[in-house]
Amino acid sequence: MLSNRSHPDKGGSKALMQMVRQAYEQVMKGNGASEAIRTVIKKDGRVDQLQNQLITLEKIHEELRIAFDESQSKLRKSEAELKHLRSTQSQQSHDDYELTQLKRENIRLKRDITDLQHDLRAAKSTQPLRSASSELSEDINPNSPFKGASNVFKQTKTTGLTHRRKVWIVLALPLLVIMAMLLPAGEHIQTIIALFDSPAEKVNSHPKILTAHPDDLAKKNAQQQAAMVMVIPEKPKALPQLKLVKEFGAWHKGYFAETQQPYIAIRSEGGSYVLHNCQGEFQYYMNQNLRSRRLPANLIYERRDRHFTIYSMPYGNGSTLAQWSGSKSLLINDEYFPNQGFENAYQDLLNTCDLVY
């Protein structure tokens, strides 16, 4: 009955059928009271080894967890220090920028003081020259404005005298008529003619010198030459010219050929320049050989120099130190100007400008 139920074809299993067969064999042998199947448990020595490994791994895990917590705390501390250093560095850069602005203002004030001193010296030297020139022109030039003014005064005085003479004639005319009626006829006519005749011109009694002493002529010629020298205008000062370089893409320091004033400049690949001088100004030297294009509004025309057209940049892109120091390159009038070596060149320019001024 058990074999029928345990047969694999009738819903049983192969192992169960084998157990039924072994039990039947034991019963047939007379061993019905003993166990049909003996279960043998083998003890494996690897279990202890694995348990020891597990304990070791748990210890390692605990040590790694403690090290991870310590590294996390150190990381947070480092981030806080880095944040503090960044804030300190930003404050230091702001202080450096303010120091740079103060240096630029100091340079500008020194330049203004120098210009005022030059103007004061020129005014002091020009004032006595003008007074001497005016005295010489009065003695030499007969058509000077001062002599014309004296002639006008004389004419006005003469006109006043003539007007007063006519008034006196009108007032005295009745008296003269009565007196003339008491005189003979011939004397009447002469008296009336004498009233309307203009007074005779005075003869100039001053002698006219036809020849002069040689010393006087030499003195007069020297005065004329001095007056001519003072009248000649001064030649205009030569404008500073930029020195050309072959390398492009890096800032370099140079000196103007005429004034020997320092500057820093950078050349683009198209041959244009951006220049920064001791006055703190940025200028754009546009190469005229480039294709003409519409210029930005912040480029203000100043003058021409050889094959360049010079524009000042009072505002906009490329007009401040912060724009150049905080970027890798700037686009000005569709030309890229790299920013390689700007900070070193600018510091060198500041030191040179302090020595010049």
Rounded mean pLDDT is: 76
The radius of gyration computed from the alpha-carbon positions, rounded to a whole number of angstroms, is 58 Å
Range of strand content = 5-15%
* Neighbour order of strands in the largest sheet: 1-2-3-4-6-5
As residue ranges, the low-confidence spans are 135-142, 144-149
Order of SSEs: HHHHHHEEEEEEHEEH
What percent of the residues sit in helical stretches (DSSP H or I)?
Answer: 55-70%
- State the total count of DSSP E strands: 8
Provide the structure class: alpha+beta
Largest sheet entry: 6 strands, antiparallel
Ends: how far apart? 125 Å
Instruction: Please tell me what the overall shape is.
Output: rod-shaped
Q: So how many helices?
A: 8
Could you please describe the fold and organization of this structure?
There is one protein chain. By secondary structure, this protein is an alpha+beta fold. The chain has eight helices and eight strands, in the order ααααααββββββαββα. It has helices at 2-6, 14-28, 46-140, 145-181, 185-196, 214-231, 321-325, 342-356, and strands at residues 252-255, 262-267, 273-277, 282-287, 300-305, 308-312, 329-332, 335-338. It has a six-stranded antiparallel β-sheet, with helices on one face. The chain has a two-stranded antiparallel ribbon with strand order 7-8. α3 runs antiparallel to α6 (214-231). The radius of gyration is 58 Å and the shape is rod-shaped. Mean pLDDT is 76; it is low at 135-142 and 144-149. The chain crosses the membrane at residues 167-186. This is J domain-containing protein. Keywords: Membrane, Transmembrane, Transmembrane helix. Residues 125-144 have a biased composition (Polar residues).
